[in-house]
Amino acid sequence: MMMKLVRSCNSSNLLGDHNVLGRGFRAMLYITQTPTTSSTSKDTLFNRISLAGDPRVSMFPILDQWVEGGRTVDKSELKTIIKLLRKYKRFNHALQLSEWMSHSLNLAPSPGDVAVQLDLVSKVHGLEQAEKYFNNIPDTLRTFHVCGALLNCYANKKSLAKAETIMQKMREFGILKKSLSYNVMLNLYSKMGQQEKFDSLIKEMEEKGISCERSTVYIRLNAYAAVSDIKGMEKLLTHMESDPRFTMDWNAYVIAANGYLKAGLFEKSLEMLKKSEQHIHSKRRGFAYEILLTLYAGLGNKDQLYRIWNLYKQMGKIYNRGYFRMISSLVKLDDLDGAEKVLVEWESVNTSFDFDIPNLLINAYCKKGLLEKAEMYISRAIERGKEPTAGTWDHLATGYYKDNQMAKAVEIMKKAIMADQRGWKLNYVTLTACVVYLKETGDTEVAEEFTRLLCLPNMDISQRCLK
Length: 467
Hints:
Mean pLDDT: 85
Radius of gyration: 27 Å
Distance between the termini: 42 Å
Keywords: Mitochondrion, Repeat, Transit peptide
Main location: mitochondrion
Organism: Camellia sinensis
Protein name: Pentacotripeptide-repeat region of PRORP domain-containing protein
Low-confidence stretches: 1-40, 456-467
Family: Belongs to the PPR family. P subfamily.
Number of strands: 2
Largest sheet: 2 strands, antiparallel
């Protein structure tokens, strides 16, 4: 099996070079060759596909080799694999499987198959290609599911006019009879602040007798809370509480608490949080406590924050997301001493180190100019074999920039660029400041290195930073 080194970089720390993987080099490994047939019982089509994680690897040879080896491909198995690939955001591979299934199995596609492929085309190739795909679909397959998939594509891209157009066509075709598409449009109107259209659509549902499912009610409650429509929120909440067909849960009161909080009605928000606690059931208790931590921090209520934290700890093991919520809440309340104590507790019990958790404190240190504390934590973590993320270095570089230590800011920003960014967006204010500093000092060698690290050899880096 052949592997390819995608990126390697020097990983020197604040105190000097350290060895993380093979004398200071970090590698991101992908399979770049189609897996060959294995003699073990684990040689399944699913395993071959799941192993080919590099998005540049085509699924077509894997599928063709499987068939050429005398094996059969079951449509239901492929659909299950496609569903898993979508779950893990391997959209390109999922689309390839969908296309292969359409062309190679000689089976008439179902509207559900077409709807899935339409969604994948939009995610991989964009709206324009999704529209072309839709326009080539036979009229007999343009069912509620397929048109609903296109509506979802438009809604995900916040293409309001096109979403409204396909919604109208669904009305004209007589296939707009379920709350699902209404919910998509209600969500879109809410996100885009189209309150009048939101209310009009609710009225249409009532006139047509479209049942308001639980999800619809929550969309409405969230929409009222988002725009601080306290009157509308309270009216709906009262209706929910009095309707015997509706079972209240903790989340409804959390939404209301958030609405009151945004409106500055802190006492009413606190009242809703108390009601929320009364409806928490054991199955979702941990997640509910995490939400309550954030909201009590938003209220600035440290006593209630610690009370919920102690209840949470009584449940037993707390995972990283729980510690993340608590530490971020304490940082928000400017209780860095408390955050440090919880961080020490996390380090003593956790089995899965995640730098995103200490990054919360590192960022707080840097914002307050406590750069030595940030440096000390990063250095200790490196000594224990932990590798800082792009966010770690980015926070520190920004701290140096704000403290006017530009030479250090440049060096640390280079580390941020070389680190595994995992979707992290570097602080472009700091990046711009670093570029300006390099130009002012006339250090063309470092400036060129900076440009190379940003993979912009043919562009003035300052143009990129200022965009």
